[in-house]
Amino acid sequence: MNRVIGVGGIFLRARDPAALGAWYRRHLGIDVQSWGGAVFRWGDGAGDPANGTTVWSVGDGGNFAPSTAPFMVNYRVADLHGLLELLRAEGCEVLDAAEESEFGIFGWVMDPEGNKVELWQPPTGA
């Protein structure tokens, strides 16, 4: 079974998300949008567009709980439910609820250091 097949997003906790987003916009040129993040479109080795994106976002980190880390990484997976079942069987701390939306299916597991890891199965064709 494939496990992680890509990085779907990187999320940063900030005391002042707007100010931190402005810093990244000004100094690193990240096109931070009004929702607090940016979308990086994937490309192949020749620079041509490829199917996929990676989201980068700054926020208050409320959705990182129970982790206290200042970040959360979202990993793209092909079979979320199968992977969560496998992780449970391997003794990993899988958080109970998976969520489904128009953006795909999301699930979470805690790593041994207490970091919440988000797993994302994009919608079919995305």
From TrEMBL:
Domain of life: Bacteria
Coiled coil: none
Record InterPro entries: Glyas_Bleomycin-R_OHBP_Dase (IPR029068), Glyoxalase_6 (IPR041581)
Gene3D superfamilies, per database record: 2,3-Dihydroxybiphenyl 1,2-Dioxygenase, domain 1
Stretches assigned to the Glyoxalase-like domain: 10-119
Pfam families: Glyoxalase_6
Listed name of the protein: VOC family protein
Organism encoding this protein: Solimonas marina
